[in-house]
Amino acid sequence: MRPWPWTARAALAAALSVPCCLLAVPAASARPAAPARPAAHAAPATPAHAAAVGNGLRLAAAGRAPVVTDSGGLRSKQGLAAPALSRSMALANAVKQAQARAVVRARAAAMAAAGPGRKCTTAACRARMPTARNLPGSQQAQVRNYWCGPATVSEMLTQLGVRVSQRAAARQLGTTGGGTDWSDAAGYPVPRVLNAHQKRNAYVAVALPWSPTAKQTRTYEIDLVTDISRGAPLAGNAYEVAGGPHLAGNPPNQTIFHWFDIRGYSRSGAITNYEDSVHGASSIGWSTGVPAYSALPSPTIAAILGARGYDW
């Protein structure tokens, strides 16, 4: 694996005000270390600082990564580890996870300040995460049976206020007859293309093992609520196997790789709401049984994403 380009490391290090050479860059198989908490007297982040961090995160999706395709697969994914992340992506995800945890802590503090049984009436409290939210529906039928990736990117960008056709997305993603890769030599196609078209959210990848732990599921729920609350959808990369959990309407006796747009949540993240580009897709024989919009418990979604992951 080619090391993360020095310019990318330097950009993120500068954004975080940490000497580049002191950044702990974990091996692909190691758990990334949580970034150090800022000192209590640290000045609040400025728009320029936030933009610099976002640019540093975006670079991770465009750097060389292990090749993980979205085709083939096994009849069972039992025992499969999470796909290996590039060093740059592991670090970028650790930084963004720290940001999400800070938002959750701020929400908890605002609710605690409101007092038990009191309504959330202050501007600071209302600005935090609601218990349920959906982004506008943007479902579109995938034009070809292997264009779930392009359709998902087109749907997500629509929700972010940008119009990109499936055909253009397929070209930019490098989609082939085998689908859209999770990662490849050019980086992480889905977050890379999403980042190229908008600045609201810096997308990074989270890889999950075949059976996500309770902690990993809770992290997914935090990521879900954090991104949706600021108007950014997530991309799920399903790896469904016969006999295992499937998205609504997907044949339970088949192994299916499928990208889909995660557009909302309820019960503070315990339920995931999503849209499915298979609905209305004439090139897929079982599309009539797939709803355009569905909801599943978040632990079920995490299990479906196991052995691949999600982009947030």
Low-confidence stretches: 1-44
Portion of residues within helices: 25-40%
Structural class, please? alpha+beta
Distance between the termini: 24 Å
- CATH first level of the domain at 139-311: Alpha Beta
| Beta strands, count | 7
The outline comes out as: globular
CATH topology of the domain at 139-311: Cathepsin B, Chain A
Radius of gyration: 19 Å
- Helix segment count? 9
Folded structure, characterized:
This protein is α+β, with helices and mostly antiparallel strands and 312 residues long. The protein contains nine helices and seven strands. The protein has a domain of 173 residues: Cysteine proteinases (Cathepsin B, Chain A). Strands 1, 2, 3, 4, 5, 6 and 7 form a seven-stranded antiparallel β-sheet that branches. Strand 4 and strand 5 form a beta hairpin. The protein is globular, with a radius of gyration of 19 Å.
How would the blueprint of this fold be written?
Elements (H helix, E strand, L loop, with lengths): L5 H10 L31 H15 L25 H28 L8 H4 L6 E2 L13 H12 L6 H8 L15 H9 L7 E3 L6 H16 L4 E7 L15 E11 L4 E5 L17 E5 H8 L3 E3 L1
Antiparallel strand pairs: 1-4, 2-7, 3-4, 3-7, 4-5, 5-6
